[in-house]
UniProtKB/TrEMBL annotation:
Record-linked PANTHER family: FLAVIN MONOAMINE OXIDASE (PTHR10742), LYSINE-SPECIFIC HISTONE DEMETHYLASE 2 (PTHR10742:SF410)
Residues annotated as domain Amine oxidase: 4-68, 87-157, 239-398
Protein name: Amine oxidase domain-containing protein
The organism of origin for this protein: Winogradskya humida
Segment forming the signal sequence: none
Superkingdom: Bacteria
Amino acid sequence: MMRAFLVSHWGDDPWSRGSWSLIGRGGTPADRVTLGSAVGVRLRIAGEATHPDRAGMAHGAYEKGREAGLWAADLGHRRVAVVGAGMAGLAAARQLTRLGVHAEVFEARDRLGGRTAGRDLDGFRFDLGANWLQQYAGNALARIAERLGLRTVPTDFADPMVLRGAPAPEGLDVDAQRRLAAAPADASIADVVDAWLREPAPWTPADIQRFADAEIIMDSGAPLSWLSARHGFEPGVGEGDRWIAGSYRLLVDHLARGLTVHLSSPVSHVSAGPEGVLVGGSRFDAAIVTVPVGVLKAGTLAFVPPLPQGHRDALSRLGMGRVEKVVLRFDEHFWPVSRSGYYRIHGPGAGDICEWLDATGADGVPTLVGLFAGPWLASLWNGTDADIAQRAASIVRDAVA
């Protein structure tokens, strides 16, 4: 019996509008660099979307926030506004404060952490947002977690237990990467997959489609017709990933300690001029904006004057995927034990895909954390959170029956 649950709503969150940034057809990692380049001497955009190598990851956001903080301090600014209290915003403000610069963080939500979202459930804390310390060996946040003595648990994404469906044949991933890299610059992943399906040998069409569902749609949460063939399937997952027992909130609380943060304070305008930058009704020497790409594209935050054309062009080629999450707590551990701690389920319908982390190791209570992506979210994520959680639990139960 299910005893407790949490359900994410990143697609509906007005301060996120998706899960993480992606590169659309015609775009390249250079667009990320352009978006993160300084606008004169008083404005800079920072966050995971501006990192050419670590996009979509919390430590990528942290690195770019820290870099933006150094930029503002090096220019001699003494008062800096930081828009957004996610990993990038906290890193920027912490760096500025360390260097003796007065920093104020403006956060639209009533909590810290942005797309990290540690939530209390049934006596423990779990992540509804960013879950893993990825690229662990080179992850700056992992080093902080180690210094704090946080307990981390490895996950082997490369070896999921497939509860329903079939794993991809050996070598298919290499073939996919070769085809995507050789695609025209303006091609989408769908263009490549469609051509591949017409001449699938030595694979079967079902092999190819399962791979696209499990490795691309699940990792992006975006339509293959929109994703850049060359750059829409970015690396990062499966490089020593670990999750934090107790959630990312342990890192968030540490990074926020001593900072000046205004919660429930959405910023609608950032106005830069010769005398400074107006943010939240106050004047600052500079502003660092760390809101997600989805918010930038929605236009709910206006820049005066508008961002330069190069920044706007880069932003037009970036977007957000949607991957939703459930955390389910049970009275009994009814699913098989996986060596990797990770599971994959194909179905019940064609193209339906979800993946699951066994988080029982957090506190010994049987717990699954499920990730869902793809077109079926339109129907699956309807109704109350209890409805969604029950549907998700049924998918696991049916897969192991």
